[in-house]
Amino acid sequence: MEPDLNALAVFALVAEERSFRAAAVRLGVTRSAVSQTIRRLEERLEIALVLRTTRSVSLTEAGERLYERIAPAVADMRVALERTEALKGRPRGRLRLAVSSIAERFLSGPFLADFLQENPEVDLDITVTDEDFDIVAEGYDAGVRLGEVIAQDMIAVSVAGDERQLAVCAPSYIDRCGMPSHPAELASHSCIGWRPSPKSAPYRWEFAEGGKEFSVAVAPKVATNDMALMIKLAVAGAGITFGMEESFRPWIERGELVPVLEDYCPFFAGFYLYYPSRRNAAPKLRALIDHVRNSGRGYR
Predict the structure, then answer these.
(1) Contacts of residue 241, Cβ cutoff 8 Å, sequence gap at least 6
(2) 287: nearest Cα among 104, 105, 112, 86
(3) Which GO terms describe its molecular function (predicted)?
(4) Cβ distance 253 to 58 under 8 Å?
(5) CATH number, position 238
(6) Which of these, 240, 278, 281, 235, lies nearest to 260 by C-alpha position?
(7) Number of independent structural domains in the chain
(8) Would residue 300 count as lying in a domain?
(9) For 272-282, b where at least 16 C-beta lie within 10 A, e where not — what string?
(10) Rounded CA separation 288/239 (Å)
(11) Pair 202, 119 in one domain
(12) Cβ atoms 127, 98 nearer than 8 A
């Protein structure tokens, strides 16, 4: 028999108060509604739980035993509800996020450090992953991914403006091997490619020409799932690599890497913080959304 949790909660209040009227006041319902709930519970259990007189309410032996067993559970549920309701106030608790490994601006130290300073009662639990999965089913509060791969039923807030992918290499590589003038020439160059997992094919490098997008399946001299290693090898002159411009920016600014094939590297919608619903967003998530917006990024 499935338990009637609502009826048990009402019974627990009657047992505490030893009064139908007092229980009704606490519940915000009529005395008659409380009495009917207890009567239905007794009929379902086929045993009397409460002794009623015109002046008092007491429990039968069965009622005492039932109350003794359910009272701790009811108390635990009340505490759980109180703690949940407390979360409606200021941002607090653990905020679970699944973030793409190449969302450089979001993962930057200052951006997240500022958020934590503004919200000292929030703890961040960040999984950096490029796997494609359902954040709701996996128990995450939100995710950060490229806008083009986010499901249409999600709410998305822009973390950064338009982004682009670039092919880059070290000046020493150009001196030794020359610079390709078209993506088709990459087949004759040493390439450092990215793959998400050992069983996955290397990522196809995406370009555009004359407004039409196309991809090139390079045969990488080195394939890895570690962007840091890709950059180290490229800086050392091992070959041409490909990824988000933001990932390469510090090395480009220092002259350790130079862009190649820029004319074939268009801009596109960048990274978004996404979550499943506008309704009843927890304060901790709402605080992160506000932090993203207040950092000068737009909204989709």
Answers:
(1) 167, 168, 169, 191, 192, 193, 194, 230, 231, 233, 234
(2) 112
(3) DNA-binding transcription factor activity; sequence-specific DNA binding
(4) no
(5) 3.40.190.290
(6) 240
(7) 3
(8) no
(9) bbbbbeeeebb
(10) 39
(11) no
(12) yes
Q: Is pLDDT of 199 > 90? A: no
* Phi–psi pair at 85, nearest 5 degrees: -65, -30
Q: Which of 64, 86, 108 represents a domain boundary (last residue)? A: 86
112 and 252 assigned to the same domain: no
Full residue range of the structural domain in which residue 32 is found: 5-86
CA distances from 140 to 95, 134, 231 (A): 8, 9, 30
- Angstrom distances, CA of residue 146 to CA of 101, 113, 230, 254, 270: 11, 22, 20, 27, 5
146 vs 124: CA distance, rounded Å:
21
Residues 139 and 247: beta-carbon distance below 8 Å? no
Please report the DSSP string for 176-188 in residue order.
Answer: HH---SSGGGGGG
Question: pTM here?
Answer: 0.60
Both structure tokens of 24: 């009704």
61, 188: one domain? no
- pLDDT tens for each residue of 172-185: 999 999 999 999 99
CA trace torsion 150, 155, 160, 161 (10° rounding): 80
**Cβ atoms of 148 and 170 closer than 8 Å:** no
* Tens of pLDDT, residues 66-125: 999 888 888 888 777 766 665 667 888 899 999 998 888 888 888 999 999 999 999 999
Whether 170 and 196 map to the same domain: the answer is yes
* CB burial of residue 97 (10 Å; 0-12, 13-18, 19+): buried
140: helix, strand or coil: coil
